[in-house]
Design a protein that fits this description.
Strands 2-1-3-4 form a four-stranded mixed sheet, with helices on one face. Helix 1 packs parallel to helix 3. It is mainly α. The radius of gyration is 17 Å and the shape is globular. Helices cover 57% and strands 6% of the residues. It has nine helices and four strands. Helix 1 links the parallel strand 1 and strand 2.
Length: 224
């Protein structure tokens, strides 16, 4: 299998966690932002990553979107399962995944790139990196005001995740699910922001444990 990705994308990290959890062998192809459209449009009709290419006879040519990749992997390799046996719990896990995808993953992007363009410049001061950060800020409309709103959304999310993870090792039910992998991937960029490391040590410990279970290298900012 081949995963088309941006190497730094937290949504692509989500797909890698699922592949690792399923212990499925795969390779990655890191695409260049902007030029990636030339490859994706003919494959999926979309412009977003990740995209999984099963590269097997009898399988679909390409699966776009991390949620669809989860569904494909569950049918392709049912064990270990990312879907909970209780249908009500699985519905809850799906709802959490969707909320994290559509709201919190976006908020993380805003907060992360706002930080990288200011106090976090020293993380990678190379010209190419700084230009890319500026492009991302313009593309998504990341400003002081929008980053502040994103910060507030993350605070609400962390309060809910804290409530769940402090009661159990899992966000829903008694096993790892799509909700846990999604939270671990989409919040991982916050590990490079010192204030989050200081205020939410439990979050990064949880992210670390999920990465270890999935055999995925730890995100930048989290040490073994």
């Amino acid at each position: 299998m081949l995963l088309l990705q941006f190497s730094t994308s937290h949504y692509c990290r989500k797909a890698r966690l699922a592949l690792g959890y399923k212990k499925i062998s795969y390779q990655v192809s890191n695409l260049t932002p902007g030029l990636h459209i030339l490859k994706l449009k003919p494959l999926t009709g979309l412009t977003t990553l990740p995209v999984l290419l099963p590269q097997e006879v009898g399988q679909v040519e390409a699966i776009a979107d991390s949620t669809n990749i989860f569904k494909f992997l569950e049918s392709y390799c049912p064990k270990p399962s990312l879907f909970l046996p209780d249908s009500r719990e699985q519905t809850e896990a799906n709802m959490l995944e969707d909320w994290l995808d559509e709201s919190i993953g976006t908020a993380t992007r805003f907060v992360y790139y706002h930080f990288r363009a200011r106090a976090g410049k020293s993380i990678d001061p190379k010209v190419f990196s700084q230009v890319l950060i500026q492009v991302v800020q313009k593309q998504y409309g990341i400003t002081d005001a929008t980053a502040k709103l994103a910060t507030e959304r993350i605070e609400i999310a962390l309060a809910e995740l804290s409530r769940r993870w402090k009661k159990s090792s899992y966000l829903v039910g008694e096993a790892l699910s799509v909700a846990d992998l999604t939270a671990a991937a989409l919040l991982s960029p916050l590990a490079l922001i010192p204030t989050y490391q200081q205020q939410y040590p439990w979050l990064f410990e949880q992210i670390k444990q999920i990465h270890l279970v999935c055999g995925e290298p730890l995100p930048p900012g989290i040490v073994n």
